[in-house]
Each structure stands twice: as structure tokens, then as C-alpha cells.
Amino acid sequence: MRIALTLPPQDPEYLDSRGGIELLTHLRGAPARVRYRGLAIDGALDRFVAAERDHLPESEVGGLGLIVLQRALLAAEDLGGLLHAFDGPDPWARLRSTKISDISSVFERVLADGDRALETIFRLATAEEILAEGLTGEQSSLLRRVRALVAQRWLTRLRGGAELWTGSPVAKATMHGFPIVAGGELLGPPPAGMLADALPQPPQGRFAAALISSARKQHVNTSVVPVPLNRQSVQRMRDEGKAAAELYGELCAMHATSTELGMRALVPWGMLEELSSEDLVGLERIAAERRGSR
């Protein structure tokens, strides 16, 4: 078997500054990874729904709900690792050395300043960069509208992926090997002593409890953190996980395309379904003029 890669002519120093051929190859392989994550999440949800339908024991149904959450968190981890990679110099080295704490930190920064992430991490062209392209006023206005649609879509998905990661006790529990107990087993009867007492107001419906411990000097404190596992909660995990996987794929495509074209920033046309036919004609005219000027 032989694998051939075709690249447009590039200055080697420029390509290295953007992460090198290794990173570009990794970015180009994103569609298969995104598809795999989506199928895995959907498959887990199907098993959860089937278990509910077949009236399996609540602890088993809840366990299958946790698998949905686990697979959604893997998609959020992919996204967080890529955000960390592009949030500093030498992205290929950063991507290969990403730690859990790096992902948590970059998601917190994204939640605090999403607009900065769009410009510096996603390489979405700013309004000033669009104006500097020498387009007509009508064309600039059109591209700014497209940019606003893309920005809204990406910020929504960024916040969803960040909240899925930072807001899930299971993320911390699983990475440190803390136990997770089915809610029904915790509450009993008979109730599980001090652990049950730590849940004065347990959530309605099916849930699990993550037992997360922290140590300070000679004292160990264990928090009992509920994880809702009803149909609505698990469906939301599935939706946020798939959105994180899709955003990961779009971020990979953005960087691969900007690297291949030698551009610092781009305005992707991924929101065409929300544009009028007149706007679509305008975009095609811009594209034709750009091709003619090359």
C-alpha cells in the first residue's frame, strides 16, 4: 500500500510555523474521527433508549446513560485538546502533550472570552480584515453577515462543549478513578448511611452519584455529586457531544484550509442554508472575482 499526499507549493518555514506537515495531515484526517465519535455517541444512546423500553433494572439503564456521557466527553476532550493546541505556539507539540488540566483551562478561557477564541484560535476573519480586502460596500456587508452567522454557531457550540466538560462531575470522577454509584442503590432502602445523608435533596428520577474525594493534610472529604440520567438529560448529553465533535471537525477544516491557502483568517460559508438566494449569488460573485484575480 502506498499513500501519497499532494500539497500546493509552500514555503517550508511557513508550513513549519503552522505546525508542520504532521499537524496538517492530522487536520485532514478529522472527518473520519468526527464520524466515528458521532456513531459511537448515537450507538450508546440507542442502547440506553432500548434498555428503557425493555424495562431493564434502573441501575443498568443508568449505567448505559453514563456511557452516553462518557462518549460525549471524549468528543469534548478532542475539541478541548485542539483548542489548547491552537491557543499558543508550536501547536503540534501542544496537541501531543495536552493534559486534562490544559483542557479544563482552555475551556474556562473560552467561556470567559469567546470572541477572542474565534479570532485567534478559529482564525475567523475580523470585520476589519474583511474591510481591508478591497471589496465593495455591499460585498463587505454580505461577508460580515456570513461571519456573524458563523460566529453565533461556533460560540453556541463552544459554550456547549465547555459546559459539558467543566460542568460534568463524571469528567473529574472518571479521570481520577473515583467511584460512581447508582442513585437507587444509594437511597435504598436501606439508604447508604452518610453517603445518602449527603444528598438531602436528591434529583427527581433516575440518577447516579459521583463520589469525588479531595485531601487536605490528614483530612479526606468526599462529595456526593448527583448526575441526572433521565431521558431528557441523556439526550442533551448526546446532542452536546455530537455538537462538540462537529465543531472539532470544523476547527480542523478551518486550520487546514487556511494553511493550504496561506491565509491568516477566513470566512467559511457553512451557513448557506440561512442565506437568501440573492446573498448566495453575491457570494458566488465574490468567489469568481477572487479566482479571476489569482
Q: What is this structure, in a nutshell?
A:
With about 290 residues, the protein is mainly α.
What Rg is obtained from the alpha carbons, in whole angstroms?
23 Å
Category by helix and strand content: mainly alpha
Give the spatial strand order of the biggest sheet.
Answer: 1-2-3
Distance between the termini: 36 Å
How are helices and strands ordered from N to C?
Answer: HHHHHHHHHHEHHEEHH
Helix content: 55-70%
Label the overall shape: elongated
**Discrete helix count:** 14
Question: What is the average per-residue confidence, as pLDDT, rounded to a whole number?
Answer: 83
Low-confidence stretches: 1-7
Major β-sheet, in short? 3 strands, antiparallel
Oligomerization state: single chain
Q: How many β-strand runs?
A: 3
Task: State which percent range the strand residues make up.
Answer: 5-15%
Summarize the structure in words.
This protein is mainly alpha-helical. Helices cover about 65% and strands about 10% of the residues. The chain has helices at about 10-15, 20-30, 30-55, 60-85, 90-95, 100-110, 115-120, 125-130, 135-165, 170-175, 185, 195, 230-260, 275-294; strands at about 180, 205-215, 220-230. Strands 1-2-3 form a 3-stranded antiparallel β-sheet. A hairpin with a 2-residue loop joins strand 2 and strand 3 (about 220-230). Helix 2 (about 20-30) packs across helix 13, helix 3 runs antiparallel to helix 4 (about 60-85) and helix 6 packs across helix 7 (about 115-120).
